[in-house]
From TrEMBL:
It comes from the Bacteria. Pfam families: HTH_11, WCX, WYL. The keyword Repeat does not apply. This is Helix-turn-helix transcriptional regulator. Residues 4-63 form the HTH deoR-type domain. Keywords: Transcription, Transcription regulation. Gene3D superfamilies: Winged helix-like DNA-binding domain superfamily/Winged helix DNA-binding domain. It comes from Actinophytocola glycyrrhizae. The keyword Repeat does not apply.
Length: 328
């Protein structure tokens, strides 16, 4: 769940992207109830932000014109969490609210106390990347306070206790020694030594709650390639649907095109690659392939092949029925 300060800042960011928003639209965009939207609007007005109520059958809100908005009053932990949250939003949505988030982040970083700025730099120092750059969709909802706590434990070499929910929904308390935070094209992960399993493990950060430092980590733990561990864990996680696809491109080109987080590749000669692509549904895989912008042939299954053919037939039919464009 978002902290109150993070939620208020996101609300301001969203309000700035359009002239007017209804309460229902704001609630859907922020993933909160309309009652929470109204309470947050009232809180922002108490803090001096000019937010006008729009008249009409549905009502709505807009930022007041020419209003000089005072800064939010944040303590050190809130400022760090807000900076991390803005960075997430700017990473995953390069346009629209992501652009506004980037502007807000630049302003916030200029006013951060040195100790908070140092904490943000320490956060960056323990973040690794796996796969391609982040996409604008499919990100897990990670509490920025959790991210900051995990990164701090990695940096300081601390042991933590936390609550974790696995993919089946089962919850457990874990004793871990965090090593590195890793972000992929889709999610945030933590690589840590699991004291109960006595081995390295990969954890999805959006399934982590209640991080508490309990002591010092064992400095004798061996080094580990955290990014490689995350990539291996993601690709080995069973997807609901797989498709085998032949792509007339060299192996290196296909690896650059389709990240290891969703597919495995093998060369079929110097100019062709066979890709095994995983996804939540046949439709998702068909849509993904059509967005690649390169030729491909679906080897199996028939369901994915038929969905691709059906989409292309619809496009062809639209082109054939397109009315003549009048000459000028």
């Amino acid at each position: 769940m978002l902290s109150a300060s993070h939620r208020l800042l996101r609300l301001l960011t969203v309000l700035s992207t359009r002239p007017e928003w209804t309460a229902a639209e704001l609630a859907e965009r922020l993933g909160i109830h309309e009652r929470t939207v109204r309470r947050d609007i009232a809180k922002l007005r108490e803090l001096g932000y000019g937010i006008d109520a729009a008249t009409g059958p549905h009502g709505g809100y807009r930022l007041g014109q020419g209003t000089q908005m005072p800064p939010l009053s944040l303590d050190d932990d809130e400022a760090l969490a807000t900076a991390i949250a803005l960075r997430q939003l700017a990473w995953r949505s390069p346009g629209g609210e992501g652009h506004a988030a980037l502007g807000a982040l630049v302003k916030l970083q200029r006013s951060l106390p040195r100790r908070v700025a140092d904490s943000l730099r320490r956060f960056d120092s323990v973040v690794a990347e796996a796969g391609d750059a982040p996409e604008a969709t499919a990100w897990g909802q990670v509490d920025p306070v959790v991210l900051a706590g995990l990164a701090g434990a990695c940096r300081a070499g601390e042991r933590v206790r936390l609550s974790y929910r696995d993919r089946r929904g089962s919850g457990s308390d874990r004793e871990l020694e965090p090593r590195q935070v890793v972000r992929t094209a889709h999610r945030w992960y933590l690589v840590a030594w699991d004291l109960t399993r006595d081995d390295w493990r990969v954890f999805r950060a959006d399934r982590i709650r209640d991080v508490t430092v309990t002591g010092r980590a064992d400095p004798r733990r061996p080094e580990v390639d955290a990014a490689a561990m995350v990539e291996a864990a993601i690709t080995s996680t069973p997807y609901e649907v797989h498709a085998d696809v032949a792509i007339p491109r060299p192996l290196t080109a296909v690896r650059a095109l389709i990240p290891a987080t969703v597919a495995r590749h093998r060369a079929d000669g110097p100019e062709t690659t066979i890709t095994r692509l995983g996804g939540p549904s046949a439709q998702w895989i068909a849509d993904y392939l059509l967005r690649l912008g390169v030729p491909f042939r679906v080897v199996a299954p028939d369901e994915v092949r038929l969905l691709v053919v059906e989409h292309l037939q619809q496009l062809l039919a639209l082109q054939r029925n397109e009315p003549d464009i009048p000459a000028h």
